[in-house]
C-alpha cells in the first residue's frame, strides 16, 4: 500500500531566480530554506510555504519562454483554461481570518489580485457574491513575477461523502 502524508514540494520554473527569491521571501514571507547549483549552470531553490510543504523553483540560463494560455493561466477568471499536463494554479492553505490581511499585503506590494475574496460554492457559476453556508472555500488569486497563478485558500468546512455529487467526465473516442 502506498501512503502519502501531503505534498512535499512542487517544482516550478522561473525566468529570474533573484526576482523570484525577492517575491517569495519579501512579499509572501516564505523563507528560502535550500539552494542547489545544478551541473548545467542552473539553480534549484526551495521555499518553506508552511505545514511541512515546500515550493521549489528551477532556473536555467537558457529555457523556452512562458506560454500563457497553454502552460499557465492566461488571465483569471476570464481565460483560466490550461493544457493537459500543465499546472493551472498553486493554492496555499490559509486561515480564513488571514485573507483580508493578505489582500492588504498584496496591495501594499503592488501585486495585482482578484478584487475581493472569492466565495466558492456549488451554485451554477461556482461563486457567490456573499458568504453563506454553502461556501466551501474562500480564495484570493494573484500571480507571481513568472505569471504563475497563485491562490490563498481558506476552507470553510470539512468535506463529507455528500460533497461527491458528479460523475467524472470522459472524452468519447
Largest sheet: 5 strands, mixed
- The secondary-structure class comes to alpha+beta
Q: What is the chains' assembly state? A: single chain
Tell me the CATH superfamily of the largest domain: 2,3-Dihydroxybiphenyl 1,2-Dioxygenase, domain 1
Helix content: 10-25%
Strand content: 25-35%
CATH topology of the largest domain: 2,3-Dihydroxybiphenyl 1,2-Dioxygenase, domain 1
Give the CA-based shape. globular
Low-pLDDT regions: none
Q: From the alpha-carbon coordinates, what is the Rg to the nearest angstrom?
A: 18 Å
CATH architecture call of the largest domain: Roll
Report the top-level CATH class of the largest domain.
Answer: Alpha Beta
How would you sum up this structure, described in words?
This protein has 173 residues and is α+β, with helices and mostly antiparallel strands. The protein contains two helices and nine strands, in the order E-H-E-E-E-E-H-E-E-E-E. The strands form two sheets. A five-stranded mixed sheet has the order 5-9-8-6-7, covered by helices on one side. A four-stranded mixed sheet has the order 1-4-3-2, with helices on one face. The protein has two domains: 1-62, 2,3-Dihydroxybiphenyl 1,2-Dioxygenase, domain 1; 88-163, 2,3-Dihydroxybiphenyl 1,2-Dioxygenase, domain 1.
What's the topology here?
Layout: E1 9-13, H1 17-27, E2 32-37, E3 43-50, E4 53-59, E5 90-93, H2 99-108, E6 118-120, E7 127-128, E8 137-143, E9 149-155
Parallel strand pairs: 1-4, 5-9
Antiparallel strand pairs: 2-3, 3-4, 6-7, 6-8, 8-9
Amino acid at each position: 500500500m502506498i501512503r502519502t502524508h501531503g505534498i512535499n514540494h512542487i517544482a516550478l520554473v522561473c525566468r529570474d531566480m533573484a526576482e523570484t527569491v525577492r517575491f517569495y521571501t519579501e512579499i509572501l514571507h516564505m523563507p528560502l530554506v535550500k539552494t542547489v547549483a545544478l551541473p548545467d549552470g542552473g539553480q534549484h531553490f526551495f521555499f518553506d510555504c508552511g505545514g511541512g510543504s515546500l515550493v521549489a523553483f528551477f532556473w536555467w540560463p537558457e529555457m523556452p519562454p512562458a506560454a500563457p494560455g497553454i502552460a499557465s493561466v492566461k488571465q483569471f477568471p476570464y481565460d483560466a483554461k490550461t493544457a493537459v499536463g500543465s499546472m493551472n494554479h498553486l493554492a496555499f492553505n490559509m486561515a480564513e481570518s488571514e485573507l483580508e490581511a493578505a489582500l492588504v499585503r498584496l496591495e501594499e506590494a503592488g501585486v495585482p489580485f482578484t478584487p475581493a475574496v472569492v466565495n466558492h460554492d456549488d451554485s451554477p457559476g461556482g461563486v457567490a457574491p456573499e458568504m453563506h453556508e454553502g461556501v466551501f472555500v474562500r480564495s484570493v488569486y494573484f500571480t507571481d513575477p513568472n505569471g504563475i497563478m497563485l491562490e490563498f485558500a481558506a476552507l470553510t468546512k470539512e468535506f463529507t461523502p455528500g460533497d461527491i455529487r458528479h460523475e467524472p467526465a470522459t472524452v468519447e473516442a
